[in-house]
């Protein structure tokens, strides 16, 4: 048996590796996606006042800072038994959509697009954002950076800082907008829409109009049929800040829906001996192993999953692109994971449109940005759609609002099973008869990039009482199990 390692994995947030095992003929027998770092935020949040938690969890990640901040802020509302005022909610949502724009833009241009613009088999030194700019030209690169910068300015204006925001308060938002600021955000929002249109044009010109790339986008080598989970509003449209969490099966049939603390009735997290990242599955289906297809209990989240569970987008330009997306694939659900990149670009347009809508809302400059606190309930759950997928923050507190327990289920955690399936499928497709080179291994790495991994966000704690490990690993091969444990 021969072992190949991709270590470290590249163009992602955090640290991980891929272990690929070849049989005697040089073909892939098994492949594993391993997370080799541990953060532990669930433990050291204990003892903090709940109102300090949003500012603390924003430091989990320099990219995902706004989403942890928002989910924890929503959970703090629950702990204090309060709902934010209408103005506060709109300010939060404006902040959140601006964060989406800057996040999606950096992920697309820095992590996803280099595989297509530069080429999947290009030298590794060129497959990066610098190589991308060398291909598309410095002028386009400057334009993207400039327009993305406007989203960061909105984030900073509302959140108080460009990196780790501070404006969260239970039941409200501490930073109101005046008319001059509102006009500025409205002007910047037009620039964000232009950025989104430019991004969709780049994707269309480079990928959709390239038959070789479309073979990767629509082919079976990157097709992972699992269940999908995302959030929808009352009309069934994609919802990012708040809504109902829905799950559909591999055929698109709804199999579950829930809100708030009901998540514990639907999601279980399985502990595995060869990775620090837990593997969630649909609790009512039960653990079926790391398998895809009908009957699997694994599910994915994120842009593609949101598209699969929803009826459409709530903004006009993005909704037209949503329709084009499914027309190209021939229906829903779409199981081709390269569709994540395209869906992400469409969401970039949706969030830009939503920023403009909110900036034009007359209520956005109201001073009514905080509701009076209720009694401490002792428990709060905040669920949002982070750019990478559904994010859950769940806190228990004492009667003074001091955190006694925390559970954070991050998008990359939800996606652990599908990512492992995608890496395994790509490895088996591209590695044949022992032939392995840099380009082939990058095609394997391309299987996880659509999920936009953030491994620093996803590894926090293995809680007491977690399900016992019953995973069958390579037919109980002790040599394999030991090699996987020796990170």
> What's the total count of β strands?
14
Report the CATH superfamily.
Cytochrome-c3 Hydrogenase, chain B
Helix content: 40-55%
What is the CATH class name?
Mainly Alpha
Span of the ends, CA to CA:
18 Å
Structural class: alpha+beta
CATH topology: Cytochrome-c3 Hydrogenase, chain B
CA-based shape? globular
- Give the count of structural domains: 1
Oligomer, anyone?
Answer: single chain
Strand content: 15-25%
Description:
42% of the residues lie in helices and 15% in strands. α14 packs antiparallel against α15. With 487 residues, the protein is of the alpha+beta class. The chain is built from 17 helices and 14 strands. The strands form five sheets. A four-stranded mixed beta sheet has the order 8-7-6-11. β13 and β14 form a beta hairpin. The longest helix is centred in the middle third of the chain and has 30 residues. It has a single domain, classed as Cytochrome-c3 Hydrogenase, chain B (Orthogonal Bundle).
Short description:
The chain is of the alpha+beta class and 487 residues long. The chain is built from 17 helices and 14 strands. The protein is globular and about 70 Å long.
């Amino acid at each position: 048996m021969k072992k190949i390692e991709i270590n470290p994995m590249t163009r992602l947030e955090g640290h991980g590796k891929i272990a690929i095992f070849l049989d005697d003929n040089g073909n892939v027998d098994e492949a594993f996606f391993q997370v080799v770092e541990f953060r532990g935020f669930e433990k050291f949040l204990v003892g903090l006042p709940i109102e300090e938690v949003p500012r603390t969890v924003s430091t989990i990640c320099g990219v995902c800072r706004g989403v942890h901040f928002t989910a924890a802020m929503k959970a703090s509302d629950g702990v204090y038994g309060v709902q934010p005022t209408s103005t506060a909610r709109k300010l939060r949502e404006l902040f959140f959509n601006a964060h989406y724009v800057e996040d999606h833009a950096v992920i697309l241009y820095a992590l996803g697009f280099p595989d297509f613009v530069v080429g999947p088999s290009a030298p590794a030194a060129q497959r990066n954002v610098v190589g991308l700019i060398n291909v598309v030209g410095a002028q386009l690169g400057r334009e993207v950076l400039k327009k993305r910068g406007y989203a960061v300015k909105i984030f900073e204006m509302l959140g108080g800082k460009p990196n780790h925001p501070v404006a969260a308060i239970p039941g409200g938002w501490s930073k109101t907008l005046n008319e001059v600021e509102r006009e500025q955000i409205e002007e910047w929002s037009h620039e964000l829409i232009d950025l989104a249109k430019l991004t969709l044009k780049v994707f269309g010109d480079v990928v959709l109009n390239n038959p070789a790339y479309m073979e990767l986008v629509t082919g079976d080598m990157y097709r992972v049929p699992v269940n999908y989970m995302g959030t929808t509003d009352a009309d069934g449209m994609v919802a990012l800040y708040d809504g109902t969490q829905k799950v559909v099966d591999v055929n698109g049939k709804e199999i579950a829906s829930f809100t708030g603390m009901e998540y514990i009735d639907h999601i279980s997290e399985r502990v595995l001996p060869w990775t620090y990242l837990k593997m969630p599955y649909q609790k009512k289906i039960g653990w079926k192993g790391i398998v895809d297809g009908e009957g699997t209990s694994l599910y994915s989240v994120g842009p593609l999953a949101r598209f699969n569970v929803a009826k459409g987008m709530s903004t006009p330009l993005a909704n037209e692109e949503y329709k084009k997306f499914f027309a190209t694939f021939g229906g829903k659900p779409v199981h081709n994971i390269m569709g994540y990149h395209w869906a992400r670009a469409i969401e970039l347009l949706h969030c830009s449109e939503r920023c403009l809508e909110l900036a034009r809302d007359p209520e956005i400059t109201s001073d009514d940005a905080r509701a009076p606190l209720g009694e401490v309930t002792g428990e709060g759950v905040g669920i949002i759609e982070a750019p990478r997928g559904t994010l859950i923050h769940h806190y228990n507190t004492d009667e003074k609002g001091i955190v006694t327990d925390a559970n954070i289920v991050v998008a990359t955690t939800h996606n652990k099973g599908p990512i492992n399936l995608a890496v395994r499928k790509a490895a088996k497709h591209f590695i044949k008869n022992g032939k392995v080179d840099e380009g082939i291994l990058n095609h394997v790495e391309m299987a996880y990039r659509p999920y936009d991994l953030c491994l620093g966000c996803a590894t926090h704690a293995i809680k007491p009482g977690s399900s016992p490990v019953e995973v069958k690993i390579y037919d109980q091969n002790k040599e394999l199990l030991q090699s996987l444990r020796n990170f």
